[in-house]
Amino acid sequence: ALKTSFVAKAVEQNQRLYKQLQTQASYKVAVLGAAGGIGQPLALLIKMSPLVSALHLYDVANVKGVAADLSHCNTPSQVLDFTGPSELASALKGVNVVVIPAGVPRKPGMTRDDLFNINAGIVKNLIEAVADNCPDAFIHIISNPVNSTVPIAAEILKKKGVYDPKKLFGVTTLDVVRANTFVAQKKNLKLIDVDVPVIGGHAGITILPLLSKTRPSVTFTDEEVQELTVRIQNAGTEVVEAKAGAGSATLSMAYAAARFVESSLRALDGDSDVYECTYIESDVTDLPFFASRVKLGRKGVEAVITKDLQGLSEYEEQALEALKPELRASIEKGIAFANKQP
Ligand code: NAI
Predict the structure, then answer these.
(1) Rounded distance from Cα 94 to ligand 1 centre (Å)
(2) CA angle, 208 then 241 then 327, to 5°
(3) I want to staple 57 with a disulfide (CB 3.0 to 4.6 A). Which of 34, 89, 202, 288 is the partner?
(4) What's the whole-model pTM score?
Protein backbone atom coordinates (compact mmCIF):
# COMPACT_ATOMS: atom_id res chain seq x y z
CA ALA A 1 0.00 0.00 0.00
CA LEU A 2 2.89 2.28 0.83
CA LYS A 3 4.40 1.65 -2.60
CA THR A 4 1.12 2.34 -4.37
CA SER A 5 0.70 5.61 -2.57
CA PHE A 6 4.22 6.63 -3.57
CA VAL A 7 3.47 5.83 -7.17
CA ALA A 8 0.12 7.56 -7.00
CA LYS A 9 1.78 10.63 -5.53
CA ALA A 10 4.43 10.68 -8.23
CA VAL A 11 1.82 10.35 -10.95
CA GLU A 12 -0.24 13.11 -9.39
CA GLN A 13 2.82 15.33 -9.14
CA ASN A 14 3.69 14.66 -12.76
CA GLN A 15 0.18 15.48 -13.87
CA ARG A 16 0.25 18.72 -11.93
CA LEU A 17 3.58 19.69 -13.50
CA TYR A 18 2.33 18.80 -16.96
CA LYS A 19 -0.84 20.85 -16.43
CA GLN A 20 1.27 23.77 -15.30
CA LEU A 21 3.40 23.49 -18.41
CA GLN A 22 0.31 23.22 -20.57
CA THR A 23 -1.28 26.32 -19.13
CA GLN A 24 1.97 28.24 -19.36
CA ALA A 25 2.68 27.26 -22.94
CA SER A 26 0.55 29.64 -24.88
CA TYR A 27 2.68 31.68 -27.27
CA LYS A 28 3.57 31.08 -30.88
CA VAL A 29 7.02 31.99 -32.14
CA ALA A 30 8.22 32.04 -35.77
CA VAL A 31 11.88 31.90 -36.77
CA LEU A 32 12.62 33.10 -40.33
CA GLY A 33 15.95 31.69 -41.50
CA ALA A 34 15.53 28.73 -39.16
CA ALA A 35 17.84 26.34 -41.01
CA GLY A 36 20.87 28.63 -40.69
CA GLY A 37 23.81 28.82 -38.35
CA ILE A 38 21.88 30.96 -35.87
CA GLY A 39 18.43 29.64 -36.72
CA GLN A 40 19.07 26.02 -35.71
CA PRO A 41 20.48 26.49 -32.20
CA LEU A 42 18.02 29.34 -31.65
CA ALA A 43 15.13 27.06 -32.55
CA LEU A 44 16.48 24.47 -30.10
CA LEU A 45 16.65 27.01 -27.27
CA ILE A 46 13.14 28.30 -28.02
CA LYS A 47 11.91 24.68 -28.08
CA MET A 48 12.99 24.47 -24.45
CA SER A 49 10.79 27.36 -23.34
CA PRO A 50 7.73 26.42 -21.27
CA LEU A 51 6.02 29.58 -22.55
CA VAL A 52 5.93 28.43 -26.18
CA SER A 53 3.03 26.39 -27.57
CA ALA A 54 4.05 26.43 -31.24
CA LEU A 55 7.34 26.96 -33.00
CA HIS A 56 7.09 27.84 -36.68
CA LEU A 57 10.33 27.27 -38.57
CA TYR A 58 10.66 28.99 -41.94
CA ASP A 59 13.53 28.96 -44.42
CA VAL A 60 14.05 28.84 -48.17
CA ALA A 61 15.64 25.36 -47.84
CA ASN A 62 16.60 22.56 -45.43
CA VAL A 63 14.07 23.32 -42.74
CA LYS A 64 12.11 20.03 -42.85
CA GLY A 65 14.91 18.07 -41.24
CA VAL A 66 15.53 20.68 -38.57
CA ALA A 67 11.85 20.61 -37.61
CA ALA A 68 11.61 16.79 -37.63
CA ASP A 69 14.68 16.59 -35.42
CA LEU A 70 13.48 19.22 -32.92
CA SER A 71 9.95 17.82 -32.80
CA HIS A 72 11.26 14.76 -30.92
CA CYS A 73 12.21 16.82 -27.85
CA ASN A 74 9.57 16.20 -25.19
CA THR A 75 8.93 19.85 -24.40
CA PRO A 76 5.46 21.40 -24.80
CA SER A 77 5.74 23.25 -28.12
CA GLN A 78 4.60 21.83 -31.41
CA VAL A 79 7.15 22.29 -34.20
CA LEU A 80 5.97 23.07 -37.73
CA ASP A 81 8.09 23.60 -40.85
CA PHE A 82 7.51 25.98 -43.75
CA THR A 83 9.64 26.09 -46.89
CA GLY A 84 9.84 28.90 -49.42
CA PRO A 85 7.73 31.98 -50.17
CA SER A 86 4.55 30.00 -50.88
CA GLU A 87 4.48 28.84 -47.24
CA LEU A 88 5.59 32.09 -45.63
CA ALA A 89 2.09 33.41 -44.92
CA SER A 90 1.12 30.20 -43.10
CA ALA A 91 4.34 30.38 -41.09
CA LEU A 92 3.33 33.82 -39.81
CA LYS A 93 -0.41 33.52 -39.17
CA GLY A 94 -1.24 33.87 -35.49
CA VAL A 95 2.30 34.21 -34.17
CA ASN A 96 3.14 36.46 -31.22
CA VAL A 97 6.87 36.83 -31.83
CA VAL A 98 8.77 36.76 -35.15
CA VAL A 99 12.54 36.37 -35.02
CA ILE A 100 14.51 37.10 -38.20
CA PRO A 101 18.04 35.69 -38.53
CA ALA A 102 17.69 35.23 -42.33
CA GLY A 103 20.49 36.41 -44.58
CA VAL A 104 24.19 36.04 -45.20
CA PRO A 105 26.80 36.35 -42.42
CA ARG A 106 30.21 38.06 -42.57
CA LYS A 107 33.46 36.55 -43.79
CA PRO A 108 36.91 37.75 -42.68
CA GLY A 109 37.61 41.28 -43.92
CA MET A 110 33.93 42.19 -44.24
CA THR A 111 32.09 44.78 -42.18
CA ARG A 112 28.43 44.34 -41.30
CA ASP A 113 27.64 47.03 -43.84
CA ASP A 114 29.14 44.87 -46.61
CA LEU A 115 26.12 42.59 -46.11
CA PHE A 116 23.70 45.40 -46.90
CA ASN A 117 23.00 44.64 -50.54
CA ILE A 118 21.85 41.06 -49.93
CA ASN A 119 20.28 41.30 -46.50
CA ALA A 120 18.35 44.53 -47.04
CA GLY A 121 16.25 42.86 -49.75
CA ILE A 122 15.69 39.72 -47.67
CA VAL A 123 14.51 41.73 -44.66
CA LYS A 124 12.26 43.88 -46.84
CA ASN A 125 10.49 40.84 -48.31
CA LEU A 126 10.09 39.11 -44.98
CA ILE A 127 8.74 42.23 -43.26
CA GLU A 128 6.16 42.72 -46.02
CA ALA A 129 4.86 39.25 -45.20
CA VAL A 130 4.94 40.00 -41.45
CA ALA A 131 2.89 43.16 -42.10
CA ASP A 132 0.32 41.18 -44.07
CA ASN A 133 0.02 38.21 -41.74
CA CYS A 134 0.90 39.09 -38.13
CA PRO A 135 1.07 42.89 -37.83
CA ASP A 136 0.63 42.75 -34.04
CA ALA A 137 3.61 40.48 -33.40
CA PHE A 138 6.82 41.54 -31.68
CA ILE A 139 9.46 41.63 -34.45
CA HIS A 140 13.06 40.77 -33.57
CA ILE A 141 15.60 41.64 -36.27
CA ILE A 142 18.93 39.84 -36.14
CA SER A 143 19.96 40.13 -39.82
CA ASN A 144 22.86 42.54 -40.26
CA PRO A 145 23.53 45.38 -40.66
CA VAL A 146 20.99 45.83 -37.83
CA ASN A 147 21.70 49.59 -37.83
CA SER A 148 20.08 49.70 -41.30
CA THR A 149 17.76 46.66 -41.40
CA VAL A 150 15.63 47.95 -38.51
CA PRO A 151 14.99 51.35 -40.23
CA ILE A 152 14.18 49.39 -43.43
CA ALA A 153 11.65 47.29 -41.52
CA ALA A 154 10.11 50.43 -39.98
CA GLU A 155 9.66 52.04 -43.41
CA ILE A 156 8.08 48.91 -44.88
CA LEU A 157 5.69 48.59 -41.94
CA LYS A 158 4.77 52.28 -42.33
CA LYS A 159 4.02 51.79 -46.02
CA LYS A 160 1.73 48.92 -45.03
CA GLY A 161 0.06 51.12 -42.40
CA VAL A 162 0.86 48.75 -39.52
CA TYR A 163 4.00 50.20 -37.94
CA ASP A 164 4.08 50.06 -34.16
CA PRO A 165 7.51 51.37 -33.04
CA LYS A 166 7.01 49.71 -29.65
CA LYS A 167 7.08 46.27 -31.26
CA LEU A 168 10.02 46.52 -33.66
CA PHE A 169 13.36 45.53 -32.10
CA GLY A 170 16.92 45.26 -33.37
CA VAL A 171 18.51 42.44 -31.40
CA THR A 172 21.63 43.79 -29.66
CA THR A 173 21.49 41.33 -26.76
CA LEU A 174 24.73 39.70 -27.88
CA ASP A 175 26.58 42.95 -27.17
CA VAL A 176 25.25 42.89 -23.60
CA VAL A 177 26.05 39.19 -23.20
CA ARG A 178 29.62 39.82 -24.39
CA ALA A 179 30.04 42.89 -22.20
CA ASN A 180 28.84 40.96 -19.14
CA THR A 181 31.19 38.07 -19.88
CA PHE A 182 34.29 40.18 -20.56
CA VAL A 183 33.76 42.47 -17.57
CA ALA A 184 33.18 39.52 -15.21
CA GLN A 185 36.40 37.89 -16.47
CA LYS A 186 38.44 41.07 -16.20
CA LYS A 187 37.18 42.01 -12.74
CA ASN A 188 36.84 38.52 -11.33
CA LEU A 189 33.14 38.98 -10.65
CA LYS A 190 30.47 36.34 -10.37
CA LEU A 191 29.05 36.24 -13.89
CA ILE A 192 25.44 35.92 -12.85
CA ASP A 193 25.55 39.28 -11.04
CA VAL A 194 27.14 41.36 -13.80
CA ASP A 195 25.04 43.69 -15.91
CA VAL A 196 26.48 46.20 -18.38
CA PRO A 197 24.07 48.29 -20.45
CA VAL A 198 25.12 48.67 -24.10
CA ILE A 199 23.66 51.53 -26.12
CA GLY A 200 23.98 53.11 -29.58
CA GLY A 201 23.93 50.67 -32.47
CA HIS A 202 25.19 47.24 -33.47
CA ALA A 203 28.39 47.69 -35.52
CA GLY A 204 31.93 48.75 -34.65
CA ILE A 205 32.15 52.06 -32.82
CA THR A 206 28.37 52.44 -32.77
CA ILE A 207 28.35 49.75 -30.04
CA LEU A 208 28.79 51.68 -26.81
CA PRO A 209 29.07 49.68 -23.57
CA LEU A 210 28.37 51.91 -20.58
CA LEU A 211 31.03 50.49 -18.30
CA SER A 212 30.46 53.31 -15.80
CA LYS A 213 26.95 51.89 -15.27
CA THR A 214 28.13 48.33 -14.60
CA ARG A 215 26.28 46.55 -11.85
CA PRO A 216 27.57 45.63 -9.32
CA SER A 217 29.43 48.92 -9.16
CA VAL A 218 33.11 48.49 -10.09
CA THR A 219 35.89 50.88 -10.98
CA PHE A 220 37.98 50.60 -14.12
CA THR A 221 41.26 52.27 -14.99
CA ASP A 222 41.28 54.31 -18.21
CA GLU A 223 43.27 51.53 -19.87
CA GLU A 224 40.71 48.92 -18.80
CA VAL A 225 37.86 51.03 -20.17
CA GLN A 226 39.63 51.43 -23.49
CA GLU A 227 40.57 47.76 -23.74
CA LEU A 228 37.14 46.42 -22.73
CA THR A 229 35.23 48.84 -24.96
CA VAL A 230 37.30 47.95 -28.01
CA ARG A 231 37.03 44.22 -27.26
CA ILE A 232 33.22 44.40 -26.92
CA GLN A 233 32.99 46.42 -30.15
CA ASN A 234 35.17 43.96 -32.06
CA ALA A 235 34.00 40.72 -30.45
CA GLY A 236 32.01 39.77 -33.53
CA THR A 237 35.14 40.14 -35.66
CA GLU A 238 37.04 37.95 -33.16
CA VAL A 239 34.58 35.14 -33.99
CA VAL A 240 34.53 35.86 -37.74
CA GLU A 241 38.33 35.55 -37.83
CA ALA A 242 38.41 32.41 -35.67
CA LYS A 243 35.85 30.78 -37.96
CA ALA A 244 38.07 31.75 -40.90
CA GLY A 245 35.44 32.00 -43.62
CA ALA A 246 32.84 29.68 -42.08
CA GLY A 247 30.60 32.52 -40.90
CA SER A 248 30.09 34.69 -37.84
CA ALA A 249 28.81 34.18 -34.32
CA THR A 250 26.00 31.63 -34.30
CA LEU A 251 25.97 29.85 -30.92
CA SER A 252 26.46 32.87 -28.66
CA MET A 253 24.06 34.75 -30.95
CA ALA A 254 21.45 32.02 -30.58
CA TYR A 255 21.88 32.17 -26.81
CA ALA A 256 21.47 35.94 -26.82
CA ALA A 257 18.48 35.88 -29.18
CA ALA A 258 16.81 33.18 -27.07
CA ARG A 259 17.22 35.40 -24.02
CA PHE A 260 15.52 38.25 -25.88
CA VAL A 261 12.69 35.95 -27.00
CA GLU A 262 12.21 34.65 -23.45
CA SER A 263 12.14 38.23 -22.11
CA SER A 264 9.54 39.17 -24.73
CA LEU A 265 7.39 36.17 -23.84
CA ARG A 266 7.61 36.96 -20.14
CA ALA A 267 6.57 40.54 -20.91
CA LEU A 268 3.65 39.31 -23.04
CA ASP A 269 2.71 37.03 -20.17
CA GLY A 270 2.39 39.98 -17.79
CA ASP A 271 5.71 39.89 -15.95
CA SER A 272 6.26 43.49 -14.88
CA ASP A 273 10.00 43.25 -14.32
CA VAL A 274 11.53 42.72 -17.77
CA TYR A 275 14.37 44.91 -18.99
CA GLU A 276 16.58 44.48 -22.08
CA CYS A 277 18.82 46.65 -24.23
CA THR A 278 17.56 46.85 -27.81
CA TYR A 279 17.83 49.00 -30.95
CA ILE A 280 14.54 50.81 -31.51
CA GLU A 281 12.99 53.99 -32.87
CA SER A 282 13.95 56.49 -30.23
CA ASP A 283 14.01 60.11 -29.19
CA VAL A 284 16.61 59.87 -26.41
CA THR A 285 19.24 61.36 -28.76
CA ASP A 286 18.97 63.37 -31.98
CA LEU A 287 19.16 60.09 -33.95
CA PRO A 288 15.86 58.48 -35.05
CA PHE A 289 16.98 54.97 -33.98
CA PHE A 290 19.12 54.16 -30.97
CA ALA A 291 19.73 51.20 -28.69
CA SER A 292 18.88 51.72 -25.04
CA ARG A 293 17.75 49.69 -22.10
CA VAL A 294 13.96 49.43 -22.19
CA LYS A 295 11.22 48.04 -19.99
CA LEU A 296 9.19 45.48 -21.90
CA GLY A 297 5.48 44.96 -21.36
CA ARG A 298 2.47 43.36 -23.04
CA LYS A 299 2.45 46.04 -25.73
CA GLY A 300 6.18 46.04 -26.39
CA VAL A 301 8.41 48.87 -25.20
CA GLU A 302 6.74 50.27 -22.10
CA ALA A 303 9.49 52.73 -21.17
CA VAL A 304 12.95 53.73 -22.32
CA ILE A 305 15.37 53.87 -19.41
CA THR A 306 16.89 57.30 -20.05
CA LYS A 307 18.73 57.48 -16.76
CA ASP A 308 21.44 55.20 -18.21
CA LEU A 309 22.43 58.20 -20.34
CA GLN A 310 22.75 60.58 -17.42
CA GLY A 311 26.08 61.00 -15.70
CA LEU A 312 28.16 59.33 -18.40
CA SER A 313 31.93 59.31 -18.02
CA GLU A 314 33.92 61.67 -20.21
CA TYR A 315 35.07 58.68 -22.29
CA GLU A 316 31.46 57.61 -22.86
CA GLU A 317 30.29 61.16 -23.69
CA GLN A 318 32.98 61.40 -26.36
CA ALA A 319 32.27 57.92 -27.71
CA LEU A 320 28.57 58.79 -27.91
CA GLU A 321 29.27 61.87 -30.01
CA ALA A 322 31.77 59.94 -32.14
CA LEU A 323 29.33 57.17 -33.02
CA LYS A 324 26.53 59.46 -34.19
CA PRO A 325 27.69 60.22 -37.77
CA GLU A 326 28.19 56.53 -38.61
CA LEU A 327 24.92 55.46 -37.02
CA ARG A 328 23.05 58.29 -38.74
CA ALA A 329 24.50 57.30 -42.13
CA SER A 330 23.46 53.66 -41.62
CA ILE A 331 19.93 54.71 -40.66
CA GLU A 332 19.64 56.99 -43.69
CA LYS A 333 20.96 54.27 -45.98
CA GLY A 334 18.23 51.91 -44.73
CA ILE A 335 15.47 54.48 -45.12
CA ALA A 336 16.66 55.39 -48.63
CA PHE A 337 16.70 51.71 -49.63
CA ALA A 338 13.16 51.11 -48.39
CA ASN A 339 11.85 54.17 -50.19
CA LYS A 340 13.52 53.63 -53.55
CA GLN A 341 11.80 50.26 -53.85
CA PRO A 342 8.56 50.06 -55.82
P1 NAI B 1 23.55 31.42 -42.25
O2 NAI B 1 23.95 31.68 -43.65
O3 NAI B 1 24.13 30.27 -41.53
O4 NAI B 1 21.97 31.27 -42.16
C5 NAI B 1 21.10 32.16 -42.79
C6 NAI B 1 19.84 31.40 -43.16
O7 NAI B 1 18.96 32.33 -43.78
C8 NAI B 1 20.07 30.25 -44.17
O9 NAI B 1 19.49 29.07 -43.67
C10 NAI B 1 19.37 30.75 -45.42
O11 NAI B 1 18.78 29.71 -46.18
C12 NAI B 1 18.32 31.66 -44.82
N13 NAI B 1 17.75 32.60 -45.78
C14 NAI B 1 18.36 33.27 -46.79
N15 NAI B 1 17.45 34.01 -47.46
C16 NAI B 1 16.27 33.81 -46.86
C17 NAI B 1 14.97 34.29 -47.09
N18 NAI B 1 14.69 35.14 -48.08
N19 NAI B 1 13.99 33.86 -46.27
C20 NAI B 1 14.26 33.03 -45.25
N21 NAI B 1 15.46 32.54 -44.99
C22 NAI B 1 16.46 32.92 -45.80
O23 NAI B 1 23.82 32.79 -41.43
P24 NAI B 1 23.84 33.01 -39.84
O25 NAI B 1 25.22 32.79 -39.33
O26 NAI B 1 22.71 32.27 -39.25
O27 NAI B 1 23.58 34.60 -39.77
C28 NAI B 1 22.34 35.14 -40.14
C29 NAI B 1 22.34 36.67 -40.01
O30 NAI B 1 22.50 37.07 -38.64
C31 NAI B 1 23.48 37.37 -40.76
O32 NAI B 1 22.95 38.51 -41.40
C33 NAI B 1 24.42 37.79 -39.67
O34 NAI B 1 25.18 38.91 -40.03
C35 NAI B 1 23.45 38.12 -38.56
N36 NAI B 1 24.04 38.17 -37.23
C37 NAI B 1 23.55 39.11 -36.34
C38 NAI B 1 24.04 39.23 -35.07
C39 NAI B 1 23.46 40.21 -34.13
O40 NAI B 1 24.03 40.41 -33.04
N41 NAI B 1 22.36 40.86 -34.42
C42 NAI B 1 25.15 38.36 -34.61
C43 NAI B 1 25.56 37.38 -35.57
C44 NAI B 1 25.04 37.33 -36.83
Answers:
(1) 23
(2) 30
(3) 34
(4) 0.94
